[in-house]
Amino acid sequence: MNDHSVLALREFEAKHYRLAVQFSERALAEQPEDASALEILGLASLQLGAIEVGVDALEELTLLRPLTDACQIELAIAYGCLGHHRLSCDLLMGIAVSGRPSSEQLLRIAAGLEAVGQARLAMEACRQAGVVSPECPNVHFQMGYYAQICGRPDSMVEALIRHAIHLDPVNLHYRIGLSSLLIRLGRKCEAITVIDHLIPDRLNEVTCECCLKRIANLFFDCDDLDRARQCGERLANLQTQNATSPPVASMTSNHE
Hints:
It contains 14 helices and no strands. It is an all-alpha fold. The chain is globular.
């Protein structure tokens, strides 16, 4: 590993993906078969939405050494982004049933499967993650998300999300998810109770425009005009920021 590879790895770990790409490209210019630099180039490019560049780098890496499970998962998801859904699904399921993935990797596999229209397989991968890490709150939250997509009863979806909140009571993402479900079910008073002590104190942590609109409408319908206004102001500020910031595609999956 040369100096540029070391810098590329450091920037990648810091999530400075553009710099990671630049340093990995310099490393490869000096040593074309630098496996570490190829891996960083591939993964960082995928994070930046340069899917074809990322796929090319990871495929080239396979000629030098076997891919780690983490790299295989990202490559498989990238194939799905390029429209190769069957290939993506087959690769992801192959890793899922190998018995090797961590719960975090299984959740990533689930996200990849859902992205290619395989919500039921995504739910099964999520269930496996629950076997590996039964006390992981995100496992239960994501299971609720996939259960909803698969048309499972609302009571099951609600129970899964509530269990996630039980394991991580201060997680705003989970609480907004439950509040959104309760709004859809017409249980607006309960929906407010779920997020009542977090809004407006943590309003700046909400980055989903759809969620902000939903929360603003909830407060407005319940005659809480002050908090409805604050949500509206946060939404306007976020829209302004998004309009002036250059778009960066990401392969990270979040569901709110």
